[in-house]
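The freezer alarm interrupted the setup, so I double-checked each line after restarting. Inputs confirmed:
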Amino acid sequence: MNIWLNFLIDSLAFGATFMYGSTGEILTEKAGHLNLGIPGIMCMGGAGGCLMLNLVGASSLPPFLIVVLGILSSAAAATLMGLIYSFLTVTLRANQNVTGLALTTFGVGLMKVIMSKLNPSVYLVTPKVYYRWPFAGRQDSLQCLGVMFFLGLIIAAAASYVLYRTKIGLHLRAVGENPATADAVGINVTRYKYLTTCIGSGIAGLGGFYYVIDYMASQEAYLSLEAFGWLSIALVIFALWRPHRTIIGSTIFGFLFSCSSFITNLSFIQVTMALKPILKMLPYVFTIVVLIVSSVRNKRENQPPESLGLPYFRENR
Amino acid sequence: MDNQLALQMRGITKRFGSVLANNHVDLDIYRGEILAVLGENGCGKTTLMNMIAGIYFPDEGQILIDGREVVIRSPKDAFEHGIGMIHQHFKLVDLFTAAENIVLGVHEEGAFSRRDVNARVTAIASKYGFSIDPEKKIYDMSVSEKQTVEIIKVLYRGADILILDEPTAVLTPQEIDRLFQVLRVMKADGKSIVIITHKLNEVLEVSDRVAILRKGEHIATVSTRDTNESELTEMMVGKKVDLDIRRSDPVDAQPRLVVTGLNLYDAEGVHVLKDISFTANGSEILGIAGIAGSGQRELLESIAGLQPLKSGEIIFHNPKKNKPVTFFHKSLRRVEELAGQHAFHDAAGNPVSFAGMKKKDIQKLVNDGQVLFNEDELINLRDKTPLQIRELGVRLSFVPEDRLGMGLVGSMGITDNMMLRSYRKGPHGLLDRKKPKALAERIIEELQVVTPGTQTPVRRLSGGNVQKVLVGREIAFTPKVLMAAYPVRGLDINSSYTIYHLLTRQKETGVAVLFVGEDLDVLLALCDRILVMNSGAVSGIVDARTATKEQLGLMMTRTDRTRKEAV
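Predicted 3D structure, all chains:
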């Protein structure tokens, strides 16, 4: 395989982290909640999964079950964060931005505490091989793709299907666009907001778990996770609030983000150290370009949900 | 009409804070009838209906459907009981198609099929005589189309009781006719229809019975056949409203604002003000009449410094009293000449004539500043921003049409809104909150603003109270020129009279009042002179005491061609 194909596969595998994160964030935003806690939630997803693996990794349970337990526990930890966020922003109507930022700070910090107490030789080693299905044992770059990558693809595609092809999706989008309208036709706005925020957080948390355990599979992986949480939020705009577009978007982001190391490896280009950080800016530059293009075209369908970030009071006249 | 009861309300009471919105209201709704709920703004008619529709929950009282007591806690409950409400502000998702909006929230068996839904929507539309494209997005629709979507949305849920809140407020006359036809078809189909309104002619045209609410209380329900406009008005306002607006004769009307040759083009290059010239005098109300959109708003905004003019002058005459005479501008000879014309006076106000005085004594008297005169200072307001106008010492108040958009900040309390006028005062860059608070309290007391307190966001107040706050603030500024655009729009009769009275009082203190109105009767009764605008130009200025409605109507509507023929 040539270097370009390797690079594409690596971009796909790397991008899956943001794919989870931004699919989760899109669901939350479609319910009208701008969740800036995604970086913290992804961190907690990673920490929750690792904590479970650390507990059961050395036990005699079948390795398959260990993997499932890890995934479940990761989603559960992230969902718990989503629940805190929902309680604060939906029930108590706290400011969404402040709540989200606080959760990020909290999640990132707590993850560092948890991870420093865990034993990497337990949580990293055991299940590695079971993530690699169906490419386990391959020597080429395809071995980067595994169960969790495909799970992410399925979730992103399914999220789009639910949002745009089912009644539940119609109701959910109505809640995010115009909660008063949704309320007036008897949609339980609070329930939709809670459920999507929690489910979205759970999905985002899996991204953190995937990154730490599967993609990086290293002890220091968690230190760089927060940055990818922010990148996931940028990807939401890049994907114009369509989950299926995060599949392509995350690949492009993955490509752009690892561009620096890729270009360094190309023999025919000289990359100085000073250029590297500039190359790392590329995903953000692209996000801004997409924002400008979508604003200029001003197509209603490509704008953020109308009540994004606004709390909903029923008796507010 | 069969007299089958559909819904009964018994002793319904609802409070918002300390404000009583509905007080023990009893109301019956029958099948196959159109019931009009009539009342002034803020009388609680919408609140009452919102309680049947599940938006609010009553504090006291019962709602009975088919004789059984029901609890309606949410709009969903209301739908289950066959009640649907079409709100004044449409509750539609702009981004969705008509069909998507219609099925929103409906629980149906089976998968969501666009085609089935479209077919059902079309079926309902043809049954009642609507026309609708189910695939059209709401953001592409006209107001009337949106209303159609709202009505079908309610019918799709199988509603038997339809409540329409001010359904005609935003429609053209043709659209109103079409709506009323549809309502009659629905009535014939056995539906109960409730329309909330304050327009008497519509009540008489379409309804079978009228329920009148006043200050949250149910006054009476009468059969439309047995009543008339004046009886309904009387029940609505509670007392015979004196239609005569007190008008005093202008005293010593001096030119205060002289506008000449004003031309304005809007952003699209349309010529919206064409060569406008007029003089507004102090101690006088100058009415501005015209069909909506004839340039009234632009004219006031131009004067207030909010529009960049193409050409023209706006001269403000700032009266300066008791200025000392100096020899700096005038020679001794000129001073003596002017004194002979009684132009000067002394500090006590007695004329100074210099008769029989020596030159030296005159010089001394003038140099001591004992000789005074009055003169208007002329200030050109053209191309000045509102702040510059204020800094020039021109006390110009503007009550804009869009109260919460341009006049007040909806989410701030009354005190804070007062401070929008005075924030530049106060020591050392700090805000002085005491005076604005006192002013807020004074306005609440003097103008009887109904509000829980000075901190309550003004957006929560009813239209009339919002307007009182705004006008009260502008008057407290002791203006020399007061401009008010549609100050009584959306207000009930009593609030309107309060505003008329305030304007008249301002005129009596020497203010030049510019009043843009839509009701010709009011303009004729309130103003001294009326300037009529016709598609951006002045078509004439008439004396309000002698002009007739027909005369004004003609000046407002005739086009250039017919005007030439008339000449």
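Quick read of the result. Chain B is about 35% helix and 25% strand.
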